[in-house]
Amino acid sequence: MDSEAMQQVTETGELPEAAHRGPISHAIFRVARLHRMLAGQLLREVGLHPAQELVMMQLWDRGRMRQTDLARHVGADAATMTRTIQRLEKAGFVRRVRSTSDRRSVLVEPTAASQALRQQVEDLWARLEDYATGDLTDTERGEALTVLEHLETNLAARIGDTQPTSHPDAADA
């Protein structure tokens, strides 16, 4: 990482006054941001953008899938998935075909070219894992994964469950 990027990381690592009641949420944001930046750098080596590898991983594991199911498995909305599939198709990594049983459905399948990409993506993810966990022991890695899984469960349980808060100035608007 160059010195300018390190400076930015150092500056963004400071907890703003307004975030003092949410230090874990602020840390998650910072870590996720850095993880995505590094993943993007690594993925560029093989011609992918962040999240495209997640689509490919699903296709490599599951084979041909309906585009709507693929979006659900990856956790993307329909519009984002359509753009991602179009870019992967243009790069030659996926092929879209109409379903023979349901002409409204679009099936997405990995191409032979994407199979050659698989090992590279697996290697990149291993490097990213090593960069992220650094000198953590196996025990610390396990503990970190357990905590992250708990955080994910807590957050997933609240999706769609939150109520909009009323703001004092809302009535004046």
Polypeptide structure, described:
There is one protein chain. This protein has 173 residues and is mostly helical. Helices cover 62% and strands 7% of the residues. It has helices at residues 3-12, 23-44, 52-62, 67-74, 78-90, 112-133, 138-158, and strands at residues 65-66, 94-98, 106-110. The N and C termini lie far apart (46 Å). Mean pLDDT is 87; it is low at 166-173.
Brief overview:
This protein is mainly alpha-helical.
pLDDT averaged residue by residue: 87
C-alpha end-to-end distance: 46 Å
Counting H and I runs of at least 4 residues, what is the number of helices?
7
Query: Quick one: biggest sheet?
Result: 3 strands, antiparallel
- SSE order, as H and E? HHHEHHEEHH
Q: What does the radius of gyration come to?
A: 20 Å
The percent range for strand residues is 5-15%
Protein name: HTH marR-type domain-containing protein
Keywords: DNA-binding, Transcription, Transcription regulation
InterPro entries: HTH_MarR-typ, MarR/SlyA-like, Tscrpt_reg_MarR-type_CS, WH-like_DNA-bd_sf, WH_DNA-bd_sf
